[in-house]
Specification:
Blueprint lengths: L5 E3 L1 H6 L4 E8 L8 H17 L5 H5 L2 H11 L6 H10 L10 H13 L2 E6 L7 E5 L5 E3 L5 E3 L5 E5 L2 E5 L3 E2 L11 E8 L5 H18 L4 E9 L1
Parallel strand pairs: 1-4
Antiparallel strand pairs: 2-10, 2-11, 3-10, 4-7, 5-6, 7-8, 8-9
Helix pairs in contact: 2-6, 6-7
Length: 228
């Protein structure tokens, strides 16, 4: 990976003291539609989550420190943290992690385990340098659903030389999305104040472990955590 691939704007550090972000880039990956070992791990994770949160109400989940940190961030935009809703659907409603492609499931599994907001990208479509910054409200990009979105001011965002690739409130873009042909992958993590860099690092290691289960020959190009 090229030097200075990922940069952090001073404006981000000023706007979000105590926040963290992380990246994990891997090569020689594969993205099959399904993977038996990953499916078994997913079933085990769902069972462990249900056992861990057995008897928990939505109020109990709201009180979790990581959920509170995201709630404080999302509430300024009058939004609800979607990973919290995913966790609730598994442990309260008995639903399962969606069956998508293996690399995306590897990310989703770590998200619901660790509750950290993560985006995935095809690294070969990303045009470096990549910048973590704060939106001013004029930026726009195409979401995964194909719709154009204008960012709200003061949201965390990541962009490359072609434009925004993700934001906290609206998620990843369509241009750099993970596809069946993805052979190099980039995962990015946003953590608002109150969570800390070590938690982000451990989360990235979980994603790495899941990817290596799919493709044991995959290699890490970069794993890094940044703190404001």
């Amino acid at each position: 990976m090229m030097p200075n691939f990922f940069m952090v704007a001073v404006t981000w550090k000023i706007a979000f003291p105590g926040a963290s972000a992380g990246i994990l880039a891997m090569r020689n990956v594969a993205n099959p539609k399904d993977h038996p070992e990953l499916d078994r791990l997913k079933d085990d994770l769902e069972n462990r989550l249900r056992a861990h949160y057995s008897g928990s109400s939505r109020a109990d989940i709201n009180a979790l420190p990581i959920i509170r940190a995201y709630h404080d961030y999302y509430s300024t935009f009058k939004k609800t943290y979607h990973v919290q809703l995913q966790l609730e659907s598994i442990v309260i409603k008995g639903k399962t992690i969606p069956n998508v492609a293996a690399l995306v499931e590897a990310m989703f599994m770590a998200e619901v385990k660790n509750l950290l907001l993560t985006a995935g990208h095809d690294l070969d479509t990303v045009q470096p340098p990549v910048l973590l910054d704060v939106s001013n409200g004029s930026e726009r990009y195409i979401l995964l659903n194909g719709q154009e979105q204008v960012l709200k001011p003061n949201d965390m965002m990541i962009s490359d030389t072609q434009g925004v690739i993700s934001s906290v409130i609206y998620g990843p873009d369509q241009r750099t999305r993970i596809t069946p042909q993805t052979r190099r992958v980039l995962f990015t993590v946003y953590a608002p104040p109150g969570i800390g860099g070590q938690v982000v690092h451990d989360h990235l290691m979980d994603i790495q472990s899941n990817v290596l289960l799919i493709t044991p020959e995959a290699e890490v190009e970069s794993l890094a955590v940044y703190e404001a």
